[in-house]
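User: Can you predict the 3D structure for this chain?
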Amino acid sequence: MSMNRSDGERGQALVIMAIFLTVVLAGAAMVIDGGNAMAQQRGTQNASDAAALAGALVIAEKMSGDSRVDADVVTAIANSFANNGSTTMGTSYYVSFAQAIVGTVGRGGSIPAEADGVKVLGQRTFDTFLAGIAGQSTWTAGAEATAIAGGLRSSCAANDGCGVMPVTFSIPITTCDGSSRPLRLTVDWPLTTLNTALADTNGDLMSIVPLCKNGPGGVGWLDFGCGSNLESVILNPCHGAFDIPTWLHTEPGNANNVESAMNTYQDTVIVVPMFDATCREVPSTGLPADCTDAGNGNNIWYHIPRFAHFLLKEAYISGNDSGPCNSGPGQPYIGGNGGTSCFKGWFVRYITEGRVGEWEPCDEDVDTDCVEEPSF
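Assistant: Here is the predicted structure, written as structure tokens:
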């Protein structure tokens, strides 16, 4: 028996070609389907993150006093997954601030009292491109995410990089009337971006924040309890972390001699507390609405619900600056008798939340400094 040599060589070539094509297809499948799987995994993780945040938001609303139950959490999580092309995978759980499981989402009834957040597992099934040759026409990506709702605790301390100036601005726009008393308007200060402020060479968007002589005006000087005088606290911020909201006390003494120190921050973004109320004594509830004496002069407390980033153009606080404080650039003009001090600059960002801690509901008959607003 004999065999044609050329036929044998052709048979070997076919086997080699088949092996080569298999390797090529496997490599292509690894690149194409593997790359798609990574993209789908990222998408599933994003969807799980969004669903966890949606569930935590419902819990934050419950902490704020709104009527929310387990069904609201279920709906929020399911809708978020659907909006992001994914579904839940298995069971979602309620968790405490320490992320211990305290209940199961979907059991009905009320949200567990000790629940501070949710833990969800999401999945997404997707078609393959070349892996179907090996019988794998679909793959599934899964991801886990946890989101916690808590109480706003504080902005960071000076040694953590948060140098807050010992001065507070009024949240509503303030000017001075004819007798240099503060006159609050009904609108907030104009807010712009840092890049826009830097490009505002004509000062069209600049704010003039006044220091009126009578009563707590547009500006108040604060005592952080960490420096011998205002100048040292301005030049070397030394405060600790601030709760949000908080009450800060005035700094006694003459502030007219700190203009030079303040102007070392010209063309620099400074962090400034913003106040919405004053009081002779901090109310037992901690709420401005319960203040019985709004106070006047140097011995008062300012209620601070937020902080601001302020790009300082110049501080006029020597007490003899009626010219620049009553003329552009910037607005509104002070225009009051004795309204001779002001800050000029741009509000470029508001800070309304800081570090988040475990939520503690307020008992107004007991707590004097509990957290009033939840976040996550």
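The two ends are 84 Å apart (CA to CA). The first strand starts at residue 87 and ends at 88.
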